[in-house]
């Protein structure tokens, strides 16, 4: 028996499965749409690989050995996923697709863009069962285990090589505080605003120990005075509206309150003046029609979004 499986033709496994099923080379040839001579040649190659006793000749056909039956079962288990994948490529129709789709989005991005993302997905996949959830502890493992189909996150978030990452959008940052803020209305110099209380949104997708704006304060010799950390944008807005607290944020937050204003940033590094948003999914799913459609849908949505002016 020569068990060099690297050189084994997948068509031989299909032949093996059909011969075991029909127990007749002529019937197998008809079912496969090939000549009986081709079947005989294929069986000869199978015997070279798995041994002469793979099939026993009988008067009216062939009798598969126990090894042949087990190999046929294994071939079925192996070839069926191939067939399913090919079928999904050939038959995928986004307007008819009715499967479950799970999208995980970093919490602040979900609060800001969630409604628009849902509308875009619902239009692109009207019959799908959509789940829009926030990114939390365990979500990374879930996407690796194929429990999450697609994620939206801030680009600096470290991800394993198993995930394909593509850029979605750039968001410009400003200082956000209440209108007519007593300090920001006069100056945006860091030494003049460093004493002001800070509001921060907490995210399970971001390590708060490495907040780049905290590091900026510390590098300049200031201790950041964090007055509020919260998962909730409405709570953050309430704090900003009713105090002198400030937040490094985008102008999108102003769409949620008419009592807030954007103010110019102090002199800070260019990488802190804007941040990037990315979409990710498994590298192994890059060729799947569903993931390609999700990729295109999310990209089109973010391409259509115009950030409110920071004035």
Task: Describe, in plain words, how this protein is organized in 3D.
- The protein is α/β, with parallel strands linked by helices.
- It has 3 domains: 5-91, Arc Repressor Mutant, subunit A (Orthogonal Bundle); 100-169 and 277-304, Periplasmic binding protein-like II (D-Maltodextrin-Binding Protein, domain 2, 3-Layer(aba) Sandwich); 174-272, Periplasmic binding protein-like II (D-Maltodextrin-Binding Protein, domain 2), CATH 3.40.190.10.
- It contains 10 helices and 12 strands.
- A 5-stranded mixed sheet has the order 4-3-5-12-6. It has a 3-stranded antiparallel sheet with strand order 10-7-11. A two-stranded antiparallel ribbon has the order 1-2.
- Helix 1 packs across helix 4 and helix 2 (25-32) crosses helix 3.
- The chain starts with 9 loop residues before the first helix and ends in a 7-residue tail after the last helix.
- The model has no long low-confidence stretch (mean pLDDT 89).
Question: Secondary-structure blueprint of this entry?
Answer:
Elements (H helix, E strand, L loop, with lengths): L9 H13 L2 H8 L3 H15 L4 E4 L2 E4 L1 H26 L8 E6 L1 H18 L4 E6 L4 H6 L5 E5 L8 E10 L1 E5 L11 H4 L4 E4 L10 H8 L6 E5 L2 H9 L5 E3 L10 E4 L10 E9 L6 H16 L7
Parallel strand pairs: 3-4, 3-5, 8-9
Antiparallel strand pairs: 1-2, 5-12, 6-12, 7-10, 7-11
Helix pairs in contact: 1-2, 1-4, 2-3, 5-10
InterPro entries: LysR-type_TF (IPR050389), LysR_HTH_N (IPR000847), LysR_subst-bd (IPR005119), WH-like_DNA-bd_sf (IPR036388), WH_DNA-bd_sf (IPR036390)
Protein name: Transcriptional regulator
Keywords: DNA-binding, Transcription, Transcription regulation
């Amino acid at each position: 028996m020569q068990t060099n499986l690297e050189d084994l033709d997948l068509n031989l496994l299909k032949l093996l499965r059909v011969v075991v099923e029909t127990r007749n080379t002529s019937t197998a040839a008809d079912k496969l749409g090939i000549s009986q001579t081709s079947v005989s040649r294929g069986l000869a190659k199978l015997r070279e690989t798995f041994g002469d006793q793979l099939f026993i000749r009988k008067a009216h056909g062939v009798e598969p050995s126990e090894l042949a039956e087990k190999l046929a079962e294994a071939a079925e288990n192996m070839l069926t996923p191939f067939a399913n994948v090919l079928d999904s490529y050939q038959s995928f129709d986004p307007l008819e697709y009715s499967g479950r789709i799970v999208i995980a989005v970093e919490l602040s991005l979900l609060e800001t863009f969630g409604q628009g993302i849902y509308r875009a997905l619902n239009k692109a996949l009207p019959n799908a069962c959509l789940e829009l959830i926030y990114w939390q502890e365990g979500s990374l493992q879930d996407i690796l285990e194929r429990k999450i189909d697609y994620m939206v996150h801030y680009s600096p978030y470290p991800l394993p090589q198993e995930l394909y990452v593509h850029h979605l959008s750039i968001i410009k940052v400003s200082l956000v505080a209440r209108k007519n803020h007593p300090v920001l209305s006069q100056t945006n110099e860091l030494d003049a605003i460093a004493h002001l209380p800070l509001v921060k949104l907490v995210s399970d997708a971001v390590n708060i120990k490495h907040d780049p704006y905290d590091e900026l304060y510390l590098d300049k010799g200031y201790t950041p005075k964090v007055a509020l950390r919260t998962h909730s944008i409405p709570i953050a807005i309430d704090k900003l509206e009713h105090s002198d607290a400030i937040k490094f944020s985008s102008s999108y937050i102003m769409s949620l309150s008419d009592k807030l204003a954007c103010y110019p940033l102090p002199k800070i590094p260019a990488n802190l003046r804007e941040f990037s948003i990315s979409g990710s999914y498994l590298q192994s799913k890059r060729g799947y029609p569903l993931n390609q459609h999700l990729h295109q849908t999310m990209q089109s949505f973010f391409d259509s979004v115009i950030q409110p002016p920071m004035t």
